[in-house]
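Problem 3 from the worked examples.
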Amino acid sequence: MAADSMQTFLNKHVEKIVLAAAIIIFVVALVVFVAMRDTVFGNQEQVRTNVEQAVKALVDARQAPTSLEKVLTPDERAALGIDQALPTGEQYLKDRDALPAAWDASIDKWIEPKKEGKVIIEAKPEVPVVMAVTDLQVFQGRGTTAEPVTNAVFKLEKPALSDIVWAGVVGQVDLTNQLAEYNKAHVPLDPSGILISKVELQRRELKPDGTWSEWKAVMPALASAVAAKWPKPPANPRDKAAAGAWYTACKTLQAEIRRVPFYTLVGKDKAGQTVDMVTGAVAGVEQPEMKRPEEAPPAAAAPVAQATAPAAAPEAAPAAPAGTASPWATAAPTVTQPAAGAHVPAAAARKHVTATLWAYDATVEPRKTYQYQMRVSVVSPIYSLQEVKDGKTRWALEFSGPWSAPSREVTIPGLVDFFFVGVAGSDKANLEVHRWILSQWVIQPSVQCNFGGPVAYVKRQKLVVPGARPGAKEVTTAEAINVDLNAEVLLVDVMRAFLYVPEGATRAIRTNILIYADARGQLNRRIEWDDKNASRAARAEREGGPGPVAPPPKTTTPPPPPPRAKTERTERTERPAVRPPR
């Protein structure tokens, strides 16, 4: 009954209830909105207050005595463009031309412009290119010297003599092109001459397996008389006094530096070679004319003066501008100039002047094969010049060129030769052994060695002392000398009664062939017939013995008979007989 009464009440007053609920919701929302508005807008007012206070502080700081604008001077304010009026077109052009010059970082300085406003870059002295050595020749020899040699192949105490073997190297360097390279690298330098400070060698050795070793530097042999005064670079390159003394020594010994003096020989082998035998004697050292290429005199078609005309005095080198002169205060060497009034043809004006360079290597070993390279060093023309900014280049006394191309192979001659001259019994070979010692040959006609063993023999005898004047009495050593006849080979076996046709003959002969191993372990052979002739020729050359044996006479073959008509009978006679097999 109570539930029915509630239902009846709701049905009658439902509209009033909904309206009352809506009013209540509106009032609550209004209260919430008013509360949030006060909070949010209250924070914005605080932010506005804070901003106004910060702006006021900045204004106060700007007006303070320590502000940036108060500190700057009027010129600084103008340079920074603060409170400056815009420039006119004419003023802009003036300001543009007055800008600072460009900075050149390579020479570490400001470049001052010319009056017309163009920037000029100063020339920087560079390292000159050094020419490579060309036309390399190589030769070998053996000889005896009275000078002390550390690596002699034989030494005699009384008198003091040393046997040496050597390899000599000769090359060419173009001095005309070298002078042109100087003029390319420096603008301009006083051409005080192209001075060569040293000649260097390096070599490599042929190994037993057929490959080459690495290149190794070689100290050229030098005569003791010149070694004491040889140019030695100062320990401190910046010591100008010591550098000047070194330069003077290089200039004084220029001929010796290019042609390194070898040991003085008191005797040498006839088959050996010296530098004079290969290139001829050189009387002096020729230098190119000390002028830049564009200053060469023009050629004319007039005839050349007679060779008997007196030579004119050499022209003086042109003076160099201040600050670019060569530091070496010496006169420039020049070649002999033509006679006064003479004209030089075009071919002579273009001629390249070259210098011959050579050196000896006396550290080689007999019977070994080598290759050589050579290079040259020239005295620096820019030593101590202020224009050179690189300290290492500025204080370098000399510059080295590239290594030349490898020379041809050269094999150093041995000291012992042997010849197979027969068989002694069933297990021995009979050999003739020659030993080169003190520029003479010691010959043992018969040395019997077992197969499977080395060729080793010692002969004791007095030797002739080399170096005697022609026509003087022959001098021998006071005591007998032990002469080592070790051929550095190992006998292996012999092939007896081998059928052999000698060179130049048409008839075969029977001879013996010796098989042996050399010091590198390679098998070789010697033919008795050929070695007997070779030994006779060697003895005839070395001590005046009998000449070689003549080869077997050639057999003459009669001409074939003319062809004839074949018949049945001739065909039967010419047909080879066929024997039945057994």
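Problem 4, a separate protein:
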Amino acid sequence: MSKTMKDLDEILSSLGGKNPREFKQVEGTYEYGDFTLVIDGVPDDPVSMPVRMKVRLALSRAGYPPRTFDSKVREIAVRDFLARSFAGRASHFSLKTGGTGGRISIDKQANVILETSAVVIGNKIIEVRFAVEPPLHKGRLSGVRSVELFIKRLPQLVKQGLFFDGVEVDKLTEWIEIAEDADFLRNSLSTLGLAAFVADGSLPAGRGKDEKVVPFKSPDDLAVSVDLPNRGSVRGMGIPQGLTVIAGASGSGKSALLRALAFGVYNHIPGDGRELIISAGDAVAVRAEEGRRIESVDISAFVPRLRGVADTTRFSTWSATLFESQVANIAEALEIGTSLLLIDDDTTAAPLLSRDDRMNTLVSQKGRQVNTLRDVLPALRDAHRVSTIIAVGGCGDFFDTADTVILMEDFLPRCVTEEAKVTLPADRAFTEGVAPVRVSLPRKRRSMGRNLEPVRLRRGEKVRPRGTGYVQYGDEFIDMAGVIQLVSPSQARGIARGLALVHRLLDGSHSLADAINQVVKRVDTVGLDVLSNRMMGDLSGFRAQELAAALNRMVQLKVK
């Protein structure tokens, strides 16, 4: 049964001087007139763990124009904006003097716009989920400070942070339009024959980064103009589908551009500098990860034969070498599905990069044990329409098979495709004397039984620390440091709950890839709440590619 704000005032006043555990008395639903406050889970020790709360606000009362939420991309942008608006004002309205506690906080992202469970819009309401540290004075509950926070400050925070009349409408509009334009462009890439697009004026390193800040400008021979729903005509560099080489000396900006393209799978907030650096939505950045676990992955495209390994179509190891880890990363990306690979030679295993024509002449094709990227990437392009953008600083072996060569000089691009091919020797022993490599896409693997139960450690055993480089699933910390497209702790939490849903789906009738794609489809259709009945406000959206990366690194995984 709902109570009123006056009821909450009386309860808070009565708690003054009591043990913090008594804060459980405030659990309930309170009507504030313009909104509803739900306090539905006070922990046993609210001092060490903040109290989770929800504010529910009727859309009809909030005053937003109907078109604000009339598409999925607009709705996600609004939810992201409201989480940031609430977070900014929460700092102002939190209690800072007179004791401890009194802090209001909400989960928010860095510079990307992701679906968030901190703000949910549905059933004609806006629900905002946040956390509050109970106000204390000398270690006891403070009735006076609690009344100040919940009765006087919280209504102002909600009014300014959530109601249409209180938010900065110009910024909200910009948020929506930037996300809408980026999403439109990403969905148009394939039709335009592009793998990626970088708008003139973009800052590939982002604002405030250590790299040199030079506004991007497309070379004329790669320039493309696109008409966006809100911004209108925008000129930029279109990177065609196929095999693209980004060349350049150290410090030229090639790695900064490639990294920006890796994050181009996400929409960025206004002012970041990368708002219109857009990549195919399923693009995967692959690199070497020495020491990672590999479970029954088909690496035969790169290693038809490997000493001590009976079958490289089912390769497993508990601690991979640099080479083994990178070819497995590529195979796993192809298994889950990708149209674009992003590779930087700085993070690539040396055996994958080069084998000169003298060596090819000396070592017959029959005697080879390793196919390089120069062998495999053209085959992926020609047979399976998988594009690659690779940044190189010291290996020109890719020039002969590249469709596009871009030279970065002082952070500015120049198209040098024809110039690069002129530098090739007249006698190409490699291309004339060796048959092209044939590459099959990896077969879809299936789980061997229900083996994805969360790991539980024995009492006293240590676990690794939290961070954006890990996904915690049960007591296991899955090392995701090499997965650079994992961008936030709340995304990692979403992936952990996604793994639990994959576990429930893997009954033998689904492949790993099918189960992962089903989970992502459910989240896209229903929302992040499908992952947890607790309906917490600390999850954000993720792609199938990062969910698959976490699954492939689990210690429990056994496949056939």
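Solution to problem 4. The longest strand covers residues 232-240. Residues 429-433 have pLDDT under 50 and may be disordered.
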